[in-house]
Amino acid sequence: MKNIYVLAEHRKGMLRDITWEAIAAGRKLSSELGAELTCILLASQPNTMSENLSSEGVRVKVVNDPIFETMNSEAIIKVLKEVLTPSGSYVLLMGASNAILDFAPGVSVALDAALATDCFSVETREGKLFASRQIYSYKINSLVSFKDSERVVLTLRAGSFPFTTSGGETKGAIENVACPVDSTSLKKRFVKYVEAEKGDVDISSADIIVSIGRGVGDEPDLDMFKSLADSVGGVLACSRPIVDKNLLPKYHQVGTSGVEVKPKLYLALGISGAFQHLGGIKGSPLLVAINKDAKAPIFRVANYGIVGDLNEIVPLLEEKIRSLKG
Amino acid sequence: MNIIVCMKWIPDTSEADLTVSPGAKDIKKDDLDFDMNDWDRFAIEEAAQIKEKVGGKVTVVSVAPEESEDMLRECLARGADEAFQIWSDEMEGGDGYATASVLASFINGRPHDLILTGTLAEDDGAGQLGGMLAEMLGIPSATLASRIEVQDKKVAFVRELEGGLYEAMEMDLPCLIAVATGLNEPRFVSIRAVRKVASIEIPNLGTGELGVGADKIGHAGARIEIEKIELPPEGEGAEIVKGKPEEVAARLAEILKEKGAIA
Ligand SMILES: Cc1cc2nc3c(=O)[nH]c(=O)nc-3n(C[C@H](O)[C@H](O)[C@H](O)COP(=O)(O)OP(=O)(O)OC[C@H]3O[C@@H](n4cnc5c(N)ncnc54)[C@H](O)[C@@H]3O)c2cc1C
Ligand SMILES: Nc1ncnc2c1ncn2[C@@H]1O[C@H](COP(=O)(O)O)[C@@H](O)[C@H]1O
Fold first, then answer.
1. Nearest to B223, CA basis, from B112, B110, B93
2. CA B15 to centroid of chain Cα atoms
3. Can you list the alpha helix ranges (DSSP code H) found in chain A?
4. What is the pTM of this model?
5. Which listed residue, of A26, A104, A231, B215, carries a Cα 20 to 30 Å from B160's Cα?
């Protein structure tokens, strides 16, 4: 692989953190493979962002076009195809974010490249590229390679590739490229951003959270969980399937596409511990999990765990808590 | 309105104790229950609701072995008009790219205005098939759609970003949309509803009928090679509180008190 590319992700004029993490992975690959690292920035007002990248010593290729106000997948696929096709063999790195999920697979087909999504580690052995990702409900790790593909697209899991600043001694060159496609005749168009409705409780500022997941069953006794939350002076939150089933409103959902929380105590009941759920829990709280599956991923990150049926344990737990309060 | 829904047939691994097969390329699946991928349940429901609103035909398709017939029949009961199963033994060992190639040749030959998929399947956790398929078909696509409204020659939709932010977009038909869970309420299917569609034939298409070359399917058509799978290393992990339910509840309450969670 002669080149390593990173596609920068931005929102509302700012680079997103995941871009720096992709650069961290890019630096590792570029030093292992002796390949050149270039960041591709498709933006409508690129200057501040390209300066930020350049001051980290990253070479930047900038395409400036009003369409790149947002990450429009159709425009991105078209432009990347034009910009990258002459490059021969390369690895293209991007964050595994909701925006990038929209175009990474299409980009891989347009570039005639192999694709591995949501990788938590990348490595090379004798010039050959490997990536690790999770399969089967995030319970199994899978190491993959890419046959003899000349081009590989990887999306990278947030939090897996810590970025450290280079100190800013050398500046990366900034190259401006004219937008190679007519972005005014697209079949997919951005209309506007929409914010989720705010609710009567704000779980983002709660110190104690009792959170329920799919393990509570289809017709859970919500009062039982509310009452447990009350007993510890906490609020009730949940994982995504609970909102999907309309058991609780969206503003109770913890996770990357829900609410970010930073409690002191997080009690996870019948939650498997998917990465997108854990991604919403910040500030390393005391994490306690009750789950009937001893192999549930949540037990790998929890401080304390109980393997058992929550319907049996929750009422007992509340009783013990109330009696300790005296 | 011709709607095609792609359904994935996957093992339910969320609560199962998984073991790695000899050779470490896959898990043992003999004891696992298979069902439709949860995200796809929302896709077939959305298709049925769109049809109920604007009329048209819903076709479901799955690249999956024979046992997936139950799932396809359930889709008919959920409102699909026809169902196709695509499989031949050589498809074993394929990846998302190989599956997308097969689905592209199936769809290329028939009318399609809107293609619906799930955003992600819980077996490979890839979230790749929809975008690959759309690009192969030369149509625009979107993932994580949490609201869809079909209008004249286009579709307005809202897709999820992070942290409670969404983007409202529109796209010309034909196009592909990969849905998010929660965008509708999948209907309850009664045994009667399934019985009503019992006589509908579900054709099984092989590579011959589709005209896809052997180099495009299975291991040969895959772009990814699985080198090795394993259970994640144990690591630190949680301190598991053991005992009878009363005992663990009591111990946990004490821990919460020690840590200051019970004032
Ligand atoms: C782009 C994207 C964004 C996402 N955003 C979010 C998000 O913001 N928030 C979020 O939560 N998810 C999100 N998800 C979904 C996420 O991947 C998981 O599917 C989800 O978190 C799983 O929820 P769960 O743990 O409740 O359910 P499951 O994974 O089904 O786990 C249920 C658990 O309950 C246990 N259980 C079952 N019965 C019992 C019982 N009686 N007693 C005790 N335990 C029991 C099971 O062993 C299992 O571990 C997102 C996914 C994607 C692709
Ligand atoms: N074998 C298959 N047959 C039909 N549809 C599939 C198949 N594999 C994946 N899909 C569809 O693509 C979506 C994303 O799957 P994946 O890319 O495997 O995460 C699923 O939700 C299905 O709608």
1. B93
2. 18
3. 17-33, 47-55, 73-84, 104-110, 222-231, 240-244, 275-278, 298-301, 310-325
4. 0.96
5. A26
Q: Give the tokens for residue A156.
A: 């990278």
Averages of pLDDT over each 10 residues, chain A, 326 residues = 94 97 98 96 97 96 97 98 93 97 98 98 96 96 96 97 88 96 92 91 94 96 97 96 95 95 97 95 95 94 96 96 87
- The predicted complex's ipTM stands at 0.96
Phi, psi (degrees; rounded to nearest 5) at B246:
-60, -40
State how beta strands A140-145 and A128-135 pair: antiparallel
Domain-located, residue B248? no
Number of domains in chain B: 1
The fourth-level CATH superfamily of domain A3-185 is HUPs (3.40.50.620)
For residue B228, give the nearest of A143, A190, A258 by CB distance. Answer: A143
User: Which is nearest to A265 in space by CA: A242, A219, A232?
Assistant: A232
Report the CATH number at residue B144: 3.40.50.620
Residue A263: closest C-alpha in chain B: B261
Pocket of ligand 2 contains residue B65 by CB under 6 Å: no
User: B27: which chain A residues are within 8 Å (Cβ-Cβ)?
Assistant: 136, 140
A189 CA distance to ligand 1 centroid (A)? Answer: 32
CATH entry, A203-325, from 1.10.8.60, 3.10.620.30, 3.40.50.1220, 3.40.50.300: 3.40.50.1220
Question: Is A147's CB within 8 Å of B248's CB?
Answer: no
Q: Which ligand is nearest to the CA of B40?
A: 2
